[in-house]
Amino acid sequence: MDKSRVKLVLFLFFSLFCIITGRMLYLQWINQEHYLNTAKNQYFQSEKIKLPRGTIYDRNGKFLVISVPKLAVYVVPKFIKNKETTAKQLSLLLGIPYEELLNILNTRKNYTVITDNVDLELKPKILKLRSDLKEWNIGIEETNIRYYPQNEIAGSTIGYVSRKTGLGLEGVEYLLNDYLGGGIADLIVLRDAQGNPVSIEKASAEKLSYNAVLSIDLNIQYIAEEALKELVVQRDPLEASVLIMNPKTGEILASATYPNYDPNYYYKYKIRKNINFQHAYEVGSVAKPIVLAEAVEEGKVNMNEVIDCLNGGIEVDGVRIRDHKRFGLLTPIQIIQHSSNVGAIKIALRLDSKRLYDKYIQLGFGRKTGIFPGEASGFLRPDYRPVNVAYSSIGQNWTATPLQVAVAYSAFANGGYLVKPILVKGLTDNSGKFIQYSQPQVVRKVFSKEVLDKVIPAMIEVVENGTAKGGKSEFFTIAGKTGTAQKYDPSIKALSNTKWYTWFAGFFPVSDPKFTVVIFANEPKPKFPGEHIGGGGVSADVLKNLVDRVMFYYKNKPDKQPSNQ
Hints:
Largest sheet: 7 strands, mixed
Helix content: 25-40%
């Protein structure tokens, strides 16, 4: 063979080898990222999925909130070949209107979740439908939804989780976002040639989640909700609430509010606040036992003395303040029993005004407790002018939340201690072991035994023979105070004579106090024309039924002697 031909052939083979080798090097090293991305786009898909959240229990282990495993069904509309048939078959299978599905397929292009609330047992049927239609861009992923089995019971306290973000937006759900987990995870899913998921290759979020145990007792909560419904039916208020707590530990056993909402359908409600924690109101005459307690502490009152209540009116700094009745001579106990404004004002004006305001502050008024998101602090601004001291003694120029009132009145019940309220008892892992626990906490001593021994008998008289006598129990002794505060009416730029805040705050049984209760209503309506609106009348039926039901649920023996009637 001609040597020149051999050299030519060898040269051509060598040149071809160099070209192939160079191309391989180019593909493997120089343009590697481009081809890897192309492969990834064919077989790897980025998707978002809601992460499960921890379970929320009541104090007895009953479910308040759970995450339920579900399927999310998605489509990639731009690759769906027969949109009408696909929409029709998915509609029959998923129960979603045909027109809604067809609109999604015609108006969307890329990855779109059409529902995330499909039962797991439908998975085989969805896969079969996809195979029968040969529409490989119908897909499913395992996800979960937040479910509230008690519906609206304690709804405004528990709060809710956003359907979009998977995170809590109100209430305990928001408060515990850092512990309950949830949220959205970015997943990289490996799929086969037909679009079937083979494996999850990477997850962007791996949150450690815990379960939560609340101080709420579901049975007590239900009793409180029923009592509140009765008040709402009878009085048609703008707002109302019932709050029950353990005065010794600070544990909140029930928080019922109106308006309320069902967290399963939170998006259907315009109002999603909890007025026990997030709204503050003028407290009215629930302030009067505090004034009497300070007077006893300062030695400015004798419980046996008689005070002239001036037949229904008193003038302070040129301002005339009226009583709700024309009272004459009353003892301090009778002033509390019948809720005389003039009597309370005359006692308040004897006091060191700075010490009186300090007592309000020591009882927690004007400050958030820190146990609930969006909590109101209330308004309390010390003003030592006599007219403002007078108004403060009848609860007319400062505001508080029902929670703050419950905490303050718990100090009357527990021996004189301000305790920090507790809503979340603790966090547990999936084995049920507590990894964090809320211990009862005493903030400070606010009342001495001497003060309580003199003031509590007056609070008992309020319920037995005074403004709250319509709510007294036949079986259990209750101590407390009613409150009625005029609302400011901006239309007349003055206090209204027809719009009121009404209160009852107290504790029971007096022999061994186990429960503090606060009953509140904003603008309750009269039952009949001409009825005088007052805290006692509005709360009477609620109080009596509430106390008896709670005590019998706890199987406590009556502390009252049977009547001889």
